[in-house]
Each structure stands twice: as C-alpha cells, then as structure tokens.
Amino acid sequence: MIKINDCELSKTQLLHLINSQQKLKAVKLIKDKTDIGLKDCKDIVDQLESNPNYYDGQSISKTILNYSKTNQKKGSHLIKENSSNKKNLLSLLLILLAFIMLYMYSIK
Predict the structure, then answer these.
(1) How far, rounded to the nearest angstrom, does the alpha carbon of residue 104 sit from its chain's CA centroid?
(2) Which of 13, 15, 49, 69 holds its CA 20 to 30 A away from the CA of 27?
(3) Residue 47 in contact with residue 54, Cβ under 8 Å?
(4) How many CA atoms are closer than 13 Å to the CA of 14, on its beta-carbon side?
(5) How many CB atoms lie within 10 A of CB 97?
C-alpha cells in the first residue's frame, strides 16, 4: 500500500497498470483518489516505474488542489465571472450610438 495524504492506494494495482503500459490510468487513479495535481501524480508514477520499491514504508504528503467555482484559470490568465460583461455592454452601447449618429448625419 502507498499512503498519499492519508489516502491508501494499492501499490500492486498501480504497478500492474504501469507494467501493462497504462501509465495514464495509473495517473488518473492517483488523481481521483488523492485529489492532488497531475504533475505530482505523474511524478509518483514515474518514480514507481523506475524503482517499484521507491515508496516502501513512506507516507507521501502532497498539496491538494482546491479551485473555487468563481475563478477559472484559462491559459495563463485568471478569469473572474461577470468581469467582462459590463465592458461588453458598454462597447455595444457605444457602437450603437455611433451607428445612430452616422445615420442622423447621413439623412441631413
């Protein structure tokens, strides 16, 4: 057994997935059970692949991911909900005002 953040995983199951060329499933299993980041999960799988006895008798402590629902990360930018709705509305109103002014100018 491997203990990650007080969550026990079957080491034999992980090694079976790794040895049968299913490393992605092993990473997903660790991620689903422990809720740690993908990089940490991949590092654990890579270490087990290079040395199956790497985590014998060790308890692993990793940072648990906790993303809030109001902030989403897209690319390298953090996007907050409703932050651009006001800007979009203001832009639309300015464009509409410009068209009205052009129409009024053209009928003179």
Answers:
(1) 51
(2) 69
(3) yes
(4) 27
(5) 10
pLDDT tens for the chain, 108 residues long, are 888 878 888 889 999 999 999 999 999 999 998 888 889 889 989 999 998 887 776 667 776 655 544 545 555 555 555 557 778 888 999 999 999 999 998 886
Angle at 23 between CA 17 and CA 26, to 5 degrees: 60
Residue holding tokens 């692949």? 49
With H, G, I as helix, E, B as strand and everything else as coil, classify residue 92. Answer: helix
Give me the sign of the Cα torsion angle 79, 82, 83, 88.
Answer: positive
Q: Which residues contact 70 (CB under 8 A, 6 or more apart)?
A: 80, 81
Specify the pairing of strand 59-60 against strand 2-4: parallel
